């Protein structure tokens, strides 16, 4: 048994990367290949599809294990939600397939699929004015993690420049070390000089009066902009000069999945929440694991809405080969998780490509559509990581 390449018929890399990951997960592979799932199909579950998803996945796994993987039936099954030939998201595809397989074989909310992929999170909101607590719990098969905000420091230079929406060349000192980072901001293409001063000042945590001059460079022609002037910024470089010697910037310390998980479980103030008991406003929300998944799927929120629509963030998260749950929240049990799969996204929000790294029979492979190559574990640590999957090993 070995990994197979998957043909990309046209924009189906999102599905190919997901299928390589799912096939590499041993308990799921065994469950589908040995036919055990058939006795579990629940055709009366209104949330299911009368076994169509689990049957089609089992059929694909069978063709895959015999060296001739066929994805046609899966593509047809997914065509309503993921029309063939269009750009789609691997994260949405992965959680959709897991959810649908679970619903096809679940009884009273339980299934082997659930045992493999799902965890449960308790949410408690504690009123700031009385002892009332509102508690809910929810199942999940993937946690979507925000990239934590970078820590701020100060620059020792008095100018910065922007080109194509990017502030470049800002360097500064933090903890006695010279550091630097690109700061990405999004400017309107047509604006006034006053609006530009206010916008840049707010991003750099300055007062508009702290900025002494702004220059525009286009086609090697550099000129100063003046009050109330209308500015067209397309393909222009913006140069900022400040009377202050220190501009606020962000450190380039890389953040990890563990940092994002700590942020996810950090208590959150709920300023607009209304207490059902005393009817006052305000509370604190706390999240806690009730059950931990055997295979822990996490996706990084790489995409957000910007001025011109959906954009891809330029920050990224690193991920360790292993992590301990107690390093996230000290009250968590001493579970250890080990990385087993990664799905990467390269490109931008409206056009890109997905490929995966999977651990299969104790070896790592890069699966990029038709190409499958053995790699070292160090090769899997790429900035393009979008989805990471860990296996509980104790």
UniProtKB/TrEMBL annotation:
Domain USP: 4-393
Listed GO biological process terms: protein deubiquitination
GO CC annotation: cytosol; nucleus
Pfam families: UCH
Highest taxon, organism lineage: Eukaryota
Annotated PANTHER family: UBIQUITIN CARBOXYL-TERMINAL HYDROLASE
Protein's recorded name: USP domain-containing protein
């Amino acid at each position: 048994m070995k990994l197979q390449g998957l043909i990309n018929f046209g924009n189906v890399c999102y599905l190919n990367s997901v299928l390589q990951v799912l096939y590499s997960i041993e308990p799921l592979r065994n469950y589908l290949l040995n036919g055990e799932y058939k006795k579990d199909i629940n055709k009366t579950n209104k949330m299911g599809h009368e076994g169509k998803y689990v049957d089609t996945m089992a059929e694909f796994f069978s063709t895959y294990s015999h060296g001739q993987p066929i994805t046609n039936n899966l593509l047809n099954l997914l065509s309503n939600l993921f029309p063939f030939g269009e750009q789609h998201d691997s994260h949405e595809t992965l959680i959709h397939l897991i959810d649908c397989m679970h619903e096809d074989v679940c009884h009273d909310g339980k299934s082997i699929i659930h045992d493999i992929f799902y965890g449960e999170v308790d949410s408690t909101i504690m009123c700031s004015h009385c002892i009332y607590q509102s508690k809910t719990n929810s199942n999940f098969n993937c946690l979507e993690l925000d990239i934590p905000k970078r820590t701020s420091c100060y620059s020792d230079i008095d100018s910065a420049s922007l080109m194509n929406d990017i502030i470049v060349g800002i360097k500064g000192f933090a903890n006695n070390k010279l550091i630097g980072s690109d700061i990405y901001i999004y400017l309107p293409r047509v604006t006034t000089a006053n609006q530009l001063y206010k916008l840049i000042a707010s991003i750099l945590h300055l007062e508009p009066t702290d900025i002494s001059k702004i220059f525009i460079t286009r086609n090697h022609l550099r000129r100063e902009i003046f009050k109330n002037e209308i500015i067209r910024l397309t393909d222009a470089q913006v140069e900022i000069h400040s009377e202050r010697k220190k501009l606020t910037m962000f450190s380039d310390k890389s953040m990890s999945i563990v940092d994002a998980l700590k942020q996810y479980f950090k208590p959150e103030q709920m300023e607009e929440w209304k207490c059902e008991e005393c009817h006052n406003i305000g509370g604190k929300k706390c999240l806690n694991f009730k059950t931990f998944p055997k295979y822990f799927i996490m996706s990084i929120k790489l995409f957000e809405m910007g001025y011109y629509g959906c954009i891809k963030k330029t920050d990224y998260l690193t991920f360790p080969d292993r992590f301990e749950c107690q390093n996230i929240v000290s009250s968590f049990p001493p579970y250890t998780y080990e990385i087993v799969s990664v799905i990467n996204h390269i490109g931008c929000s409206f056009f890109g490509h997905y490929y995966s790294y999977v651990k299969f029979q104790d070896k790592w492979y890069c699966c990029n559509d038709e190409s499958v190559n053995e790699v070292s574990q160090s090769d899997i640590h790429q900035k393009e990581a979008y989805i990471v999957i860990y296996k509980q090993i104790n």
